[in-house]
């Protein structure tokens, strides 16, 4: 892989926001001490100024029960449009706040919350990142795959992909 560039504070939040927005959907993983891991796709609704990652969730969901029992979560993002990846380990909490419901609402949530922000099932999950790592390549996926294929066929080491990777440290 290319250069290692660790990001701190505002720059880290912006990188997390960019990669999470590009990917939109993450695998939201709970119950980290149990195998197999419990993961499900979740859409990110917001990343606030402090770097907290927000999701809309049903109050009665298994994921809410799991977050309440063990606040440790892992989020895995992979961008559909580019070769960018993000892993976020964090602490989650279920938030019940009508004003925040209105602030974080997205129309797609209507599929689960029929009554919108007044739905009694509505809750938010706030994930506060503790540790994050990103991979952001400069070449598109096709070029990276071509380089890997060439290395396999010729039996040589794959060329550097000029990508950047590193920790995204918020605080």
TrEMBL record:
Pfam families: Pyrid_ox_like (PF16242). Residues 11-158 form the General stress protein FMN-binding split barrel domain. Signal peptide: none annotated. InterPro entries: Split_barrel_FMN-bd (IPR012349), Stress-Dev_Protein (IPR052917), YdaG_split_barrel_FMN-bd (IPR038725). This is Pyridoxamine 5'-phosphate oxidase family protein. It comes from Sediminibacterium roseum.
């Amino acid at each position: 892989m290319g250069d290692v560039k660790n990001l701190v504070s505002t720059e880290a939040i912006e990188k997390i926001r960019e990669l999470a927005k590009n990917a939109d959907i993450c695998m939201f993983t709970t119950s980290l001490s149990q195998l197999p891991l419990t993961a499900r796709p979740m859409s990110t609704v917001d990343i606030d100024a402090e770097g907290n990652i927000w999701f809309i969730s049903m109050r009665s969901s298994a994921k809410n029960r799991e977050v309440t029992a063990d606040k440790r979560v892992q989020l895995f993002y992979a961008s559909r449009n580019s070769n960018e990846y993000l892993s976020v380990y964090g602490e989650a909490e279920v938030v019940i706040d009508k004003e925040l419901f209105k602030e974080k609402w997205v129309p797609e949530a209507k599929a689960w919350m029929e009554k919108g922000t007044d739905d009694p099932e509505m809750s938010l999950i706030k994930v506060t990142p503790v540790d994050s790592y990103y991979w952001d390549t400069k070449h598109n996926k096709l070029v990276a795959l071509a380089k890997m294929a060439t290395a396999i066929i010729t039996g040589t080491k794959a060329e550097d992909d000029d990508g950047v990777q590193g920790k995204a440290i918020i605080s």
